[in-house]
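Sync notes, pocket subgroup
Present: LS, DG
LS reminded everyone that the earlier model was apo-only. Rerun requested with CU-O-CU linkage included. Inputs:
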Amino acid sequence: AAIVEHVFHVGNVLVKPLCNEQMIPAVNGTLPGPTIKVREGDTLVVHVINNSTYNITIHWHGVFQLKSSWMDGANMITQCPIQPSNNFTYRFDITGQEGTLLWHAHVVNLRATLHGALIIRPRSGRPYPFPKPYKEVPLIFQQWWDLDVGLLNLRPAPLCDAYLINGLAGDSYPCSKNRMFKLKVVQGKTYLLRIINAALNTHLFFKIANHNMTVVALDAVYTTPYVTDVMVLTPGQSVDALFTADQPTRLYHMSISPYTSAHGIPVPANNPINGLIVYEGATSSSPASPLMPWMNDVATAHKFSSNITGLVGGPHWKPVPRHVDEKMFVTMGLGLDPCPPKTKCIGPYGHRYAGSLNNRTFMIPERLSMQEAYFYNISGVYTDDFPAQPPRKFDYTNFKVQTDSDFKMMFPERKTSAKTIKFNSTVEIVVQNTGIISAESHPMHLHGFNFYVVGYGFGNYDPIRDASKLNLVNPQLRNTIGVPPGGYVVLRFIANNPGVWMFHCHMDAHLPYGIMMAFIVQNGPTPDTSLPSPPSNLPQCTRDPTIYES
Ligand code: C2O
């Protein structure tokens, strides 16, 4: 195993993906930022030098951070941010996982421009569980705002102006026709596409004209090979897929288009956003284009999301735990909260929107990170009373305000609350989408662990009917899952890593709405299974930290 070292200079740079030049914070001057390549078992060391004007943290999305919770980079959860003109070095081992992940800033909307690929190859001498590809190609999908005021002053981010593939908007937009991502391929060769949805707020469909792809991993976990002509990725998800240049020599578009998941309103896809596959020897002619799914094509998204299975017996596979120690039922809601003074609120009656889990709107701490408060036993930063159930039962997917207690569900409690979990226990979470939040898919992401997606369906979860249908044999094992519109997922994970870990919606627009909670995984019996002391140079909070503004 090696030590892989990077220096991240975070600075404000000028870029021009569309028509206007924009000043954005970027790592080493590029959008997307640098690709990190490691092998499983390596130690990754990243020196972050903050020359930007923003407070930042960097999160290694999907990395287990075994015994290195202090390196998770979750702003005000595991650390206070790195302030301008300050540095911090992230250092952690990458073990027990292979495939494609991403790194991104974890402070307000900064991940819009501070992100990049994190590629984990097998240890040297270990093969992939699929034929060795000729080449590997990172494909990073992004959202772009052509604003001169600066995206970062707006929260939540407004509708975006464009989508990008590897920083390039391509031929769907004015000003960017000649700035399109191009992949040159040799006929007959197979490529491993390492696909990441780094968009802040949009699920995206992906297709390549006239070609199939074979999915071999999701969120850096190998899957049973799955052949498809279309895929969908929620923000924060990644897919490894093989693609063989097995079609006639010419040009082909690879395209992305938004998946809005809204029920009922049939909307054709926007102009798809294109990159180009160029077969060696192809003369420039007009490229073949794929037909993209409609924006609300729930059926296509559901098929892709639910049909892929885990690679039982593959590298790092562990059987699904049969016994559950902690059962949780978590409802997602979107209610209202009185508008604080001197703030403009966009909700009805001058209120602001308040997303919630089990009718709690999560408040990011302002003075001290939760993990420092936990480690040093400092009270007043959070409470450990996150409820394992919603305050009451109701018809989740057909929620209507009829009674006083329905009305209360519209005004969630604002709190920084965590759920404490014993070391090594198996946690099962049913996440239920509700009518309180509109029929939209929400990508729930867990820090520090992968979860098995043992159940996935539409309607109200029924503990008797649906519990008997759980897939305990070959479910997906991953870190981010879209909870279907008007549906639910059932997740299991083993809490074998001490520390404070976020569980939240990976639509950035929903973070200020508090669709979030935290798990505190207690120490195990030995020093080796306990949360170590924080690194001595962990950034300190000032009296005026950047906080999530809502
Ligand atoms: Cu990729 Cu908490 O995030």
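DG: The pocket of CU-O-CU linkage is lined by residues 59, 61, 74, 104, 106, 236, 445, 447, 502, 504, 506 (CB under 6 Å).
LS: The chain has three domains: 1-126, 127-309, 326-529.
Action: DG to write up.
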